[in-house]
Write a structure and sequence with these properties.
two-stranded antiparallel sheet, 38% helix
């Protein structure tokens, strides 16, 4: 059984604030998940090769190549906001 202190530690690591009711609920629900996962320990896996893929998909890689864009001026003209020859976009981080 997971303790409330362990749930608080997990929440802290995940930067999640939990109410006391949520701490209690997650203590119970996460413990149930761990108990369910213990069933997997009972499965006999002798002779089973470890796998990370169960299908025949393979990564397809290509070399990165720098290419000159022939329509650069045309694309820049379509952009809604420009400043000093650069494109203006919304900020990503709060100041």
């Amino acid at each position: 059984m997971l303790t409330i202190e362990e749930v608080k530690k997990i929440a802290n690591l995940a930067k999640i604030k939990l109410t006391p009711a949520e701490e209690q609920r997650y203590t119970e629900t996460i413990s149930v998940v761990f108990d369910y996962m213990k069933i997997l320990d009972e499965v006999n896996t002798d002779g089973i090769e470890p796998t990370c893929e169960v299908n025949d998909l393979k990564n397809v890689w290509r070399n990165d190549e720098v290419k000159k864009n022939q329509n650069n001026k045309e694309l820049l003209e379509q952009f809604p906001e420009k400043y000093a020859g650069m494109l203006v976009v919304p900020g990503v981080f709060d100041n």
